[in-house]
Description:
This protein has 248 residues and is an alpha/beta fold. The chain has one domain (6-247): TIM Barrel (Alpha-Beta Barrel), CATH 3.20.20. It is built from 9 helices and 9 strands. It has helices at residues 6-11, 14-23, 26-34, 52-57, 78-87, 104-115, 147-165, 175-182, 239-247; strands spanning 39-43, 62-69, 73-74, 91-97, 127-129, 170-173, 193-196, 214-221, 230-235. The protein has an 8-stranded mixed beta barrel with strand order 1-2-4-5-6-7-8-9, surrounded by 4 helices. The longest helix is centred in the middle third of the chain and has 19 residues, at 147-165. It starts with 5 loop residues before the first helix and ends with a helix. 46% of the residues are buried.
Amino acid sequence: MNVHKRLFVFLASSALLCGLAAGNGAAHADVDASTKQALGIDVSNHNGPVDFKAVKKDGRDFAFVLATDGSSFRSELFDRQYRGASKAGLFRGAYHFARPDSSASKQANHFLKTVNYRNDGKSLPPVLDMEANPANPNGSTCYGLNHKQMKAWIRDFLGKVKKTTKRDAIIYTSPVFWQECTGNSKAFKDNPLWIAQWGVGKPDKIGGWPDYTFWQYSESGHVDGVKRKVDVNRFNGGVAKLGKLAQG
């Protein structure tokens, strides 16, 4: 995600790093121009205020917004960004940056209280952001948890979200994190996958998922309405299919 995107650089191979440098520019512009897939962005407090009407005019269909991080952090821009996306006519979703070294239940409650999710036909399923430990990217990548413990943590968080919202949360992750920290678990393939993999023509298949639902294909996109470089994403389908996902 925007807040922690540099972590994937620590985890990526040198080949992927080269791909990031080469693949974030004109190649992705060509993809956007030729595809009928719905396009979107994800933002956090680090992006500052966003003009979502301009984002919409620039051909984007959805936006994900950071709501919470860990057990206590709440983005001060969440309400403004989340409501702004909806008012501009975008499908919107909220995400939680996971810290699996503390209670999954407590973090889920914090996230759910902040978002106050409503199945209104405009809101995408809640998102659990699973990525490397930002405090120590070269060491405790998996927060000191083994595969069994990590899967149990994810299961607890997703279960709380499902019980409260009646929705299967989207899982955001990278191939490196999922393989290293869950052992490439296939236990969550019923949850929509949002995969982060940059500078490639097509993302890897992981964890038993037949395909991605969302793909974050670059962390340095240029979109009207966002002052800084922004994460850009593709939905594996058109706007009508995206609407069905929002409706549940």
